[in-house]
Specification:
Oligomer: single chain
Radius of gyration: 21 Å
Distance between the termini: 62 Å
Number of strands: 0
Strand content: under 5%
Order of helices and strands: HHHHHHHHHHHHHHHH
Shape: globular
Length: 408
């Protein structure tokens, strides 16, 4: 037994390209499963007879599952190791896929969404921290890049996969889940042999953690979280009601098109994080704020004039802006936080983002009942633009104070 512990400890903290690829795949497929329902919601509405408000509530329950999971299990991989937590996330993902595969009513959809939320919560902190340990410490931003591509790339792929399969294949409410379930099982098998990156492990202590950010990065963290949160709020609304908008306003019934809009948004977010590779933190975040303001204006115009082209353009711009903000936050955490606190800080960051992903979607769902879809979209766009403007002004104010201190 002692030899096994010694061998595992010898692996801990050492870079491993193969291990990083396997963890990234596990991260990706877990997040793929969380967005498969997006283009299928109109089908579920017809199949089980629920309303557009129910869709946003179901989506919010997924986000709630993520937030609760992050708050309860956010420190778990710091204690017991990254690999066991990633494995648990994959098992929950398979369970969620199986529930959807067998779903016959709304209750099963809710159970599946909550399981998917918990699987995402477990994998986000653990896989992000694992990649930071498995990828060479000489390239700290590379780990952040791989992590966000796996995360946001998975969210993007799930929507497009489900949209295409549901349009061209039989049994659209079953086949996408069968594909994702098989890939998740492959990820479980592939996880064998991945080096553990936690050197010193301790017994698990499951309790609701307070949202904690190391004081050394607090200001940068808050600005990134607010900007990224505004972007995630927009992504959440795209995910929950884009199919409804396309069907009822634009009279577009293609599930592939509904999946494409969300795919463009999350793909934009995946590539948006690359802004942090060429710009320092403050200019990158300023670009993100400007992008959110422009994207929100285009979204409002799309709702007002019912134009598909500007809807897709707004999804791309908002995605790029959100990705830049998220990339800045993750890079700050992975480069300026001690390894034993990284998963906790990442979990706190994504708890904020996923709260913003789910709560505004319900708000928009309620607004739709009161003032209609198009006006609800316009109000929401204004809120996103105002949040981005507040952060942008704080960046300029902070920069002016820094220059004044330097001159003094």
């Amino acid at each position: 037994m002692s030899n096994a512990r010694h061998a595992d400890g010898a692996k801990a903290g050492s870079p491993s390209t193969s291990g990083a690829v396997r963890v990234a795949f596990a991260f990706w497929i877990t997040l793929v499963g969380t967005t498969v329902p997006t283009p299928l919601y109109p089908l579920y509405e017809r199949e089980f007879g629920f309303s557009s408000l129910t869709v946003t509530v179901v989506y919010a329950l997924y986000a709630l599952g993520v937030v609760v999971g992050l708050l309860v299990f956010g420190r778990l991989s710091d204690q017991v190791g990254r690999r066991p937590v990633i494995l648990a996330a994959l098992i929950l993902s398979v369970a969620a896929d199986a529930v959807f595969l067998a779903a016959v009513d709304l209750a099963m959809i809710i159970v599946g969404r909550v399981l998917a939320g918990l699987s995402a919560a477990l994998v986000i902190g653990a896989a992000t921290a694992a990649l930071a340990g498995l990828i060479s410490p000489q390239h700290p931003r590379r780990a952040a890049t791989v992590s966000i591509f796996a995360n946001l790339g998975g969210l993007a792929t799930g929507t497009l996969l489900a949209g295409i399969v549901s349009d061209v294949a039989p049994d659209p409410l079953r086949l996408p889940w069968a594909i994702v379930l098989i890939l998740a099982v492959i990820a479980i098998i592939a996880l064998r042999g991945v080096p553990e990156t936690v050197r010193e492990r301790s017994p698990a202590t499951l309790r609701v953690q307070r949202l904690h950010v190391p004081s050394t990065i607090r200001g940068a963290f808050i600005r990134s979280a607010i900007t990224g949160g505004a972007g995630f709020a927009a992504l959440g609304v795209f995910t929950s009601v884009s199919g409804l908008f396309l069907g009822t306003v634009l009279h577009e019934t293609s599930h592939t098109l509904a999946g494409l809009v969300v795919f463009v948004a999350f793909t934009g977010a995946a590539f948006g994080q690359l802004v942090t590779r060429v710009l320092s933190s403050r200019p990158a975040l300023a670009c993100a704020c400007v992008g959110l303001i422009v994207g929100a204006c285009l979204l409002a115009y799309s709702m007002w004039m019912a134009v598909l082209a500007t809807l897709i353009l707004s999804a791309a711009i908002i995605g790029l802006a959100a990705g830049a903000a998220v990339g800045d936050g993750i890079a700050t955490i992975t480069t300026k936080t001690a390894p034993q606190h990284q998963a906790e800080a990442v979990s706190t960051f994504f708890a904020i983002l996923f709260a913003m992903l789910g709560v505004p979607a319900v708000g928009v769902g309620l607004l739709i009942q009161w003032i209609g879809l198009r006006h609800a979209g316009e109000v929401f766009s204004a809120v996103v633009a105002v949040l981005a403007l507040v952060v942008l002004l704080s960046l300029f104010h902070g920069g002016a104070r820094s220059e004044a201190r330097t001159a003094g």
